[in-house]
Amino acid sequence: MNANNAINNNISNDLNNNKVHKPGFIAAKQLPIPTLEILKADGTLHAGAAPPALEQALARKIYQTMIYIRVLDERMVAAQRQGRLSFYLTCTGEEAAVIGAAAACEPADMIMGQYREQGALRFRGFTTEQFMNQMLSNEKDLGKGRQMPIHYGTRALNYMTISSPLATQIPQAAGYAYGQKLDGEQACTLCYFGEGAASEGDFHAGLNMAAVLKAPVIFVCRNNGYAISTPTEEQFAGDGIASRGVGYGMQSIRVDGNDLLAVYAATVEARKIVIETNEPVLIETMSYRLGAHSTSDDPSGYRSREEEDKWREQDPIERMKNWLIKQQWWSEEEDTRSLEAYRKEVLDTLKRQEKLSPPALEELITDVYDQVPAHLQAQYDSLGEHLRKYPDHYPASRGA
Amino acid sequence: MATMNLLQAVNNALDIAMADNRRVICLGEDVGKFGGVFRATSHLQEKYGRERCFNTPLTEQGIAGFAIGLAAQGSVPVAEIQFADYIFPAFDQLVNEAAKFRYRSGNEFNVAGLTIRTPYGGGIAGGLYHSQSPESYFCHTPGLKVVVPSTPYQAKGLLLAAIRDPNPILFFEPKRLYRAAQGEVPEDDYELPLGRAEVVREGDDITLVAWGAQMDYLRQAAELAEADGISCELIDLRTLLPWDEETLAASVSKTGRLIVSHEAPRTGGFAGEICAAIQERCFLSLEAPICRVTGLDTPFPLVHEKEYLPDQLKVYEAIKATVSY
């Protein structure tokens, strides 16, 4: 009722009772948002920076997830080049931004990603077999062979199935989190998207709704410099994406996305705010997409090798490793051993899961609705007759 | 039983659904304290609180996306799009997201609880942007159900069924009938089956099929034809996706003639789908070509609305021409 009265009495539509008597405009550069940095490339801390409380076991798990994803990405790009996968998309360069945010959340928190967040999924416990099953569209794929590689999703791990249209998950995350709030769960929604997706209408709709309706969402914008070939200066004007969070009325922060400690520290704080206040928070992670957009893309057509090399020196994995070694929580030997083990696991599992059959033909018509409607069943029956007539022409169904 | 208009029936259904299930949530532009621009959500905020019945910012894509998220979480959102003419910013969310949610996830996730209500149709001097009938766009989308009531009794029973059906549903409300249609409506909770047509009136010479506000014109046309000794069978489809082919095919097999009518423009309209399906099923029973009586292939007009609408006289003339073919 108080809010209603406030609105009704607000006859001058004066937001903050701050008046001036000469025209004066405010430029974006007058309100610059700083970037949080904690960890330097050599693994030491910036002067005056305090590391977040991060226990050895968790720090090791985060790092192991980072190198696992680096290995998975390398091997899957190679497998795609060999024609064993139709498509792939790497997280290379953004492992700290993705995994650092996920590691600061709880398993009950829903993750709604864009498509480059396989690190968050791995952190939650997605197995190599599950990755392969999805990418190979085999009979064990949770998605039943319906989506292109990398469109993962699992209810057991609270990881919402990826959908190709950009930014659609942003207003959905607001709604999901609002439902969590109404149910009184001490849980929130972690919503990832890229800086390119932040140009979509759904970004603006979703942030506004989350802020106005008070939904506990942690929005993480992975600002990785490029949307396919389009650099950020051709994507937006003004002070990046973080400033937009402020504009929509939510607490916002910009962090060095290649700095695991900064991402983790910011997300721990963000989760506290979100759970305590039921209000959304925006984190902009400044990073760089070291790989191509996808296996269908070749970055040499739009950016220089020098630029890439410069960013390679900022590699989030090297930086984290240096820190862990300084803590005496990790060693070069363990690193080599782990990388080898992951490579072997990925390749062996790929080889094994490749042998599985595709999902049953019936999965073509299930899950359109909760039950197969009569008209669709009739279409399927007529398809079946045709397939039985020409079995060799339709290898995926083998005349089923 | 109580006498209700169509709007009161909708409001009553929402009230019952919210009382019955605490996870039912009503949202949309102006639906909160004000109760919606047509008052479909009157008093719901008062009764169930601001958290369960609330205004949203002015963003149809946001409303649809937010409702999808709620439904994915297990809530039962009933989102209002103020006019069907403004549903297009939400098209991506409805067609690419809601409709494919269960399929693309292999049933890991769904938006079972989602219902989108929206007033549609002409006859209220609303011009281009307060009159359209966009149902056929959504009927082309597997995964959605499309429901259109034509009476207060149907509005309540179908809306309760839609809210509880485990699939995303677009519920188009004929706003011309919001206050014009009055009828007896049980005060208790009841549902009408989705995907099933209603034979409103039996006849022998010709079948007339439509849905929503158009049923009103069919009824009047059938009465005019009756005076000429033509017996019309009237079928109200009620659900367009999935639609009840069986009931219509049985009727056309009996009468041998069919008129399909809708307010939306002809080309690409849902009548085309019905004609194609029925000629496949009933070719040997047909005594005359199936006839469509529809809006013109123009944007929805203002001053010439009466000329544009497929009214009872146009349907009556089509009946005579088809019977004497």
UniProtKB/TrEMBL annotation, chain A:
EC number of this enzyme: 1.2.4.4
Domain Dehydrogenase E1 component: 63-356
Keyword Oxidoreductase attached: yes
Superkingdom of this protein's organism: Bacteria
Class in the EC hierarchy, top level: oxidoreductase
Function: The branched-chain alpha-keto dehydrogenase complex catalyzes the overall conversion of alpha-keto acids to acyl-CoA and CO(2). It contains multiple copies of three enzymatic components: branched-chain alpha-keto acid decarboxylase (E1), lipoamide acyltransferase (E2) and lipoamide dehydrogenase (E3).
UniProt-recorded name of the protein: 2-oxoisovalerate dehydrogenase subunit alpha
Organism per entry: Exilibacterium tricleocarpae
UniProtKB/TrEMBL annotation, chain B:
Transmembrane stretches, start-end: none
Sorted UniProt keywords: Oxidoreductase, Thiamine pyrophosphate
SUPFAM superfamilies: Thiamin diphosphate-binding fold (THDP-binding), TK C-terminal domain-like
Domain Transketolase-like pyrimidine-binding: 4-180
GO biological process: branched-chain amino acid catabolic process; response to nutrient
Gene3D superfamilies with a match to the protein in the record: 3.40.50.920, 3.40.50.970
Sample GO molecular function, one term: branched-chain 2-oxo acid dehydrogenase activity
Pfam family, one: Transketolase_C
Cofactor needs: thiamine diphosphate
Its EC number(s): 1.2.4.4
Annotated InterPro entries: THDP-binding, Transketo_C/PFOR_II, Transketolase-like_Pyr-bd, Transketolase_C
CDD domains on file: TPP_PYR_E1-PDHc-beta_like
Annotated signal sequence range: none
Job description of the protein: The branched-chain alpha-keto dehydrogenase complex catalyzes the overall conversion of alpha-keto acids to acyl-CoA and CO(2). It contains multiple copies of three enzymatic components: branched-chain alpha-keto acid decarboxylase (E1), lipoamide acyltransferase (E2) and lipoamide dehydrogenase (E3).
Record-given protein name: 2-oxoisovalerate dehydrogenase subunit beta
